[in-house]
Design goal:
Blueprint (H helix, E strand, L loop, with lengths): L24 H4 L1 H14 L13 H23 L2 H5 L4 E9 L5 E5 L9 H24 L3 E3 L16 E3 L1 E9 L5 H21 L7 E8 L7 E10 L4 H11 L8 E3 L3 E2 L2 H12 L7 H10 L6 E3 L22 E5 H4 L23 H5 L6 H6 L5
Antiparallel strand pairs: 1-2, 1-11, 3-4, 5-7, 5-8, 5-9, 6-7, 6-10
Helix pairs in contact: 2-3, 5-8, 6-7
Length: 382
């Protein structure tokens, strides 16, 4: 891994095409999407007025927004992911992006946002992630100070040869757990171990660590999926064997017998940003079955996380018009900016027009089975 060049996803060979007649992404994830959409749809009906004061208009609007969020997510799942990917990059003829400062307009293209499947969105996400990580990691390197080396308690350990005080540098840690074949369970086990390892860092005096973490999956030797985490942290020199023992203790759960920590190595800010952005947007090179399982296991979870205050939040995009550069871009319907069209509310929805899915074949055999078509036909005001 030392000499691997980390490049943007999609810049190499094209992903393997599915065989004719092979199940699509929607077919492979149908059962999970139906179950998850049912949970989200039911959560939208939970009466939250007892917890929030509905006499205040602001709180009532917030309660309605939570309901609308759950139902829109459920509808999106039941429409399927194939239609989102197939419509990525198409021109949206119902809206444009307009700058309120200079008045210039720019076209809008539909984006699916599925970086694990769509190579175009993966390249865009790679660039955004790298541009956000690089200045944060560079500032961390510049602010690195001399700190005591983390020696273990074994006087015969080789770490005793390291000076007592070393400079804080960006160090790469690769944390692994034994893979069981269930990506969701492995990811949860990895997260629990990470929480315990953070507690160990806090006990060593590192209560506000500066680090970025990415969770990735690789096929492994059995093609069942190997979930692991890549962490770049600003740390002084530390005992590798001590860290390995602590991670083995932190990740011990449900009979996990094999854990590993790759030997930490230092990285520059540029190399670390490219490294993390690459692994945060990988996925199109996985086998179709494993890719579908990873999409389900990582649904609703962040592709990468950073310490609080380390990475600046994603800001607004400045206007690309020469001489402007103001942060005043907004999405408006075409009818509003057109001189011939009447002004008024948006006449056309901004999203991709997709018909509700037809009832599943199992609905007729089992009338009590949850139906996607029935879910989409429910009234929005209930």
């Amino acid at each position: 891994m030392q000499g691997t060049a980390h490049v943007a996803p999609g810049s190499g060979a094209p992903p393997p095409q599915p065989e004719p007649g092979a199940p699509s992404l929607d077919d492979r994830t149908r059962q999970w999407r139906e179950r998850r959409a049912g949970e989200l749809w039911a959560a939208g009906f939970i009466d939250r007025r007892e917890r929030w004061d509905v006499t205040d208009d602001g709180h009532r609007v917030c309660w309605l927004r939570v309901r609308r969020w759950h139902r829109s997510r459920a509808e999106s799942l039941m429409r399927g992911w194939d239609v989102r990917v197939s419509g990525c990059g198409e021109l949206d003829d119902s809206a444009v992006v307009q700058c309120t400062a200079c008045g210039c307009t720019h076209p809008v293209y539909h984006r699916c946002g599925m970086v694990r499947v769509c190579r175009s969105c993966a390249r865009r996400a790679w660039g955004r992630a790298r541009s956000r990580m690089l200045p944060a990691l560079a500032d961390a390197v510049r602010s690195g100070d001399w700190a005591p080396t983390w020696h273990c308690d074994d006087d015969a350990c080789s770490c005793r040869a390291v000076p007592a005080v070393t400079r804080e540098e960006l160090r790469l840690l690769t944390l692994t757990v034994r893979h069981s074949g269930d990506l969701d369970a492995d990811r949860q086990r990895l997260q629990r171990g990470w929480v315990r390892l953070r507690a160990w860092f806090a006990a060593r005096g590192l209560r506000k660590p500066r680090m970025v973490r990415v969770v990735e999956v690789t096929p492994g030797r059995d093609d069942l999926g190997h979930v692991h985490a890549h962490v770049v942290a600003l740390l002084p020199a530390l005992c590798f064997h001590w860290l390995r023992r602590e991670w083995a203790s932190a990740s011990e759960d449900e009979g996990a017998a094999f854990v590993d920590v790759q030997r930490p190595r230092t990285m520059s800010a540029e190399a670390a940003a490219r490294y993390l952005a690459t692994y945060a947007t990988k996925g199109d090179d996985l086998p179709p079955e494993l890719r579908a399982a990873w999409l389900c296991a990582s649904y609703g979870k962040r592709a990468w996380t950073a310490s609080r205050g380390l990475v600046e939040p994603a800001g607004r995009v400045p206007c690309p018009e020469p001489g402007c550069g103001e942060l005043s871009l907004t999405r408006v319907p075409v009818a509003v900016v057109s001189a011939d069209a009447p002004r008024g509310p948006p006449p056309v929805a901004w999203g991709v027009a997709v018909q509700p899915p037809a009832p599943h074949a199992d609905d007729a055999a089992d009338p009590d089975r949850w139906s996607a078509a029935r879910m989409l036909s429910e009234s929005w005001t209930k």
